[in-house]
Amino acid sequence: MTDQSRMWLVTNARSGSNTADALVALYDCCDARGIVVERQIDFPDEELPTPEQLDEAGVGCLAIYTGDGTLNAAITALYGWGGSILVLPGGTMNLLSIRLHGDVDAPIVIERYANQAVRPVRPLMARCEKGDALAGLLAGPGTAWGSVREAMRDFDLSAIAETASQAINETTAGTMLRCAEPARGRPEGYPLIEFSPSDRGMQLDGFSSETTGELLQQSWALLRRQFREGPHIRLGLFDEVTLESVDGGPVEVLIDGEPATLGPRATFTVAACEVDLLATDHGY
Q1: Which residues, at least 6 apart from 198, have a Cβ–Cβ distance to it below 8 Å?
Q2: CB distance 75 to 62 below 8 Å
Q3: Check: CATH 3.40.50.10330 for 3-117?
Q4: The whole model's pTM is what?
Q5: In this structure, which topology does domain 132-272 adopt according to CATH?
Q6: Could you tell me which of 13, 103, 107, 185 has the fewest CB atoms within 10 Å of its CB?
Q7: Which residues, in sequence order, are bridge partners of residue 139?
Q8: Contact 184, 252 (CB under 8 A)
């Protein structure tokens, strides 16, 4: 049995596409192509694997079938590991999987892997002092809508109402962010700035909600993570950029969907992923 036919698998039942039926279909696809999933790690109930555990088991490939947040945690925990990671589309948006494989489902990625139609890559990310964003990063008071999405995922109606009210208040009255170095866009700032990492650098887009209609449009787009459906402007493509809050407050961010708080001036740089990811799309 070759290394190509052995892998460990990380799953997360809370991820958007990670249903029981989808998991059965994934195992069926692996079985049909002679791939043995030797161990399944159910995060967060089980701890993510370490490089030492994978090396001790002689496993050279870890497949991760989760959303972007769990992908981030699992990948960054394996920085420096000598094996490879196979990202599978197991979440709602699957932005990292689309970067690596195109907009295809997990069985197609497994089929390409089984046919050895893969290439190890280290894609560029957006890095700040609180972490690395492989799929995308959001900054500004508009990130408060991330809490509404979490409440919706739990079907908690009272939490949805409470967090939506807070998010509206934050988006309209919270600390606006502006692009300070280099100076780009509106000096009065934006409630939300999106970072989209690519092999060309970090693309920044500023989103505004100046009227009630724009606020509702942007809020609905944020809930569905279809950010560019809201009013926005392209700020540029950068290797390094510094954002600052207009009133000196903290900079709130979502790093691959996970919240963090930075100081009033925050610098973001391009960095390469520090472990091999397997790509199957012609874009790589």
Answers
A1: 99, 124
A2: no
A3: yes
A4: 0.85
A5: Tumour Suppressor Smad4 (2.60.200)
A6: 103
A7: 193, 253
A8: no
pLDDT recorded at residue 128? 97
Question: Residue 131 in contact with residue 107, Cβ under 8 Å?
Answer: no
Q: Within a 13 Å sphere around the CA of 200, how many CA atoms are in the beta-carbon half? A: 6
Q: Which residues of the chain have pLDDT under 50?
A: 1-2, 151, 211-212, 227
> What DSSP letter does each residue of the chain carry, written as one string?
--GGGEEEEEE-TTSTT--HHHHHHHHHHHHHTT-EEEEEEETTTSPPPPHHHHHHHT--EEEEEE-HHHHHHHHHTTTT-SSEEEEEE-SSS-HHHHHHH-S--HHHHHHHHHTT--EEE--EEEEETTEEESS-EEESGGGGHHHHHHHHHTT-HHHHHHHHHHHHHHHHHS--EEEEETTBS-TT-BSEEEEEEETTEEEEEEE---SHHHHHHHHHHHHTT-GGGSSEEEEEEESEEEEEETTS--EEEEETTEEEEE-SEEEEEEEE-SSEEEE-STT-
Residue 195 — φ and ψ, nearest 5°? -105, 130
Over residues 170-192, the pLDDT tens digits come to 665 667 899 999 999 999 998 88
67, 12 contact by CB (below 8 A): yes
List the chain domain ranges: 3-117, 132-272
Measured in residues, the chain has a length of 284
**Residue linked to tokens 């472990």:** 275
Between the CA of residue 120 and those of 38, 69, 132, what are the distances in Å? 22, 21, 19
**Residue 162 has what pLDDT?**
57
